[in-house]
Amino acid sequence: MRLGYTPTANFETLGAILAAVESDNPNMTIVPNEVFSAEIPGRILAGKIDVGLAVHPEQMRGVRGELLRIEPLVLLVGKRHRLADASVVAVASLQGETLRLFPRELAPVYYDRIVAACEQAGFEPRITAFPNPPPQATLARLPAGREVSLAPASFGVPAAAAEPDVVPRELAQPGILVEWSILWPERAQSAAIARFLDSARRCATENHWLRSPTETSSAQI
User: Cα(220)–Cα(118) distance, rounded to whole angstroms?
Assistant: First the structure.
């Protein structure tokens, strides 16, 4: 089973899904490929991958999708940053900060949701896109305190835990939610894909990934 997943699925989300699939299908071999969200539907349609895990994927004829997880974004800052001492940070507090994100073309809907949340809070965000990600690379820039970043909590919290000079902070007023979807080809669906989807759905149910977002966040941070 060829699985395409967006880089921020690393840590909790990808690991939980793979564990569920392995438990349910011990004879299934998973070949994971790190692919940005915008590329996943096209790769499925071209037959290069069998299933995909993407953040806010764009719709494409011939590709089916199903919501798998909803979670909040967290703010990642260096420990010396002015916002590091706050347990909860209002989005409006990011005005004047340089927000280090991925290039828009890698996940347009996701990117636009972040921009819209900033505009709703009353400001136009100042964004610097990091070239040639992986997203872990941006964490190394945060301890200097000149930039901040945003990431899904399932990625940002464990990633920050591995960086002694970076901390995650809850975002509020408004919180920004991330939607993960699992994708597969509309036609010629195999029994292996069906089994994979069943395991992913079970994983989402058992981990309460689709529960009300108001129940999720500060306890994780």
Answer: 23
Rounded to whole angstroms, the Cα distance separating 51 from 5 reads 9
Indicate if 38 and 125 belong to the same structural domain: no
| CB-CB contact of 140 with 50 (8 Å) | no
Per the CB < 8 A criterion, the answer to whether 71 and 62 are in contact is no
In whole angstroms, how far apart are CA 24 and each of 28, 172, 181, 198? 9, 38, 20, 9
Binned at pLDDT 50, 70 and 90, residue 133 comes out as low
Task: Write out the two tokens for 97.
Answer: 């900060």
Q: Which residue do the tokens 């916002």 mark?
A: 83
CA atoms in the 13 A half-sphere facing the CB of 127: 18
Q: What's the pLDDT tens digit per position in 81-113?
A: 999 999 999 999 999 999 998 889 989 999 999
Whether residue 47 is found in the same domain as residue 97? no
Residues 98, 64, single domain; the answer is no
Asked if 3 and 30 count as a contact pair (C-beta separation under 8 A), the reply is yes
Map residue 99 onto helix, strand or coil: strand
